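Repro:
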Amino acid sequence: MGTFFSSGRLTVKAKSSESGSDILIVGSKNPLKLKIELTHAWGRPLLHIMIHDSELKILSFTEKKYYHGHLGTPGSLKFFPARLDPDQVWALLRAYPVLRKYSRAVSLKGNQFTLLNVKTEPVQVVDLYSESTLPRLVSFPEQGMKVSFSDFENDSGLKYAQKIRLDDSKTETILVLKLKQLVFNKTLPESIFNLEKPRDFEMLPLR
């Protein structure tokens, strides 16, 4: 599976605040490229986000600013409020989990397996639906994050969840992505991943 595009609704809950926006996502796996467009329900653009491996570029239309930096830096949390690496972002937006690099896998109870590193520390725990063996919950103990997947669909043999929820206990943030459509393996023009700075936007680094 090399490419996808999808659309849906993203809700972000952070402590006492909550916001929602329509979302359009385009992704390519090798090399990893993701473009995310967030808009108000009535169509006004809010953010355009471009991820190329760990490089991050953000157009903030409300601020008229163009930010550039890397995924996971403190400044990026303002716009992408979860501490994710590129593979985790891909899994979240592709709507299906990706296994972390691991040294050994063990099963400590039914419908669950744990991936361990060379120090036998858990790096990822995957809980499965008992009736289908599809992934239900993916936990990252070291990061304090859990991602749940539900309402699965099948597109020409490629499975994906229509609802994805991320809980980040350290930042007290919840992201809920509800997909209306997801299409795989369509040819994407390279220009779709361009993110041009409007002439009147200020350019700033993500600190």
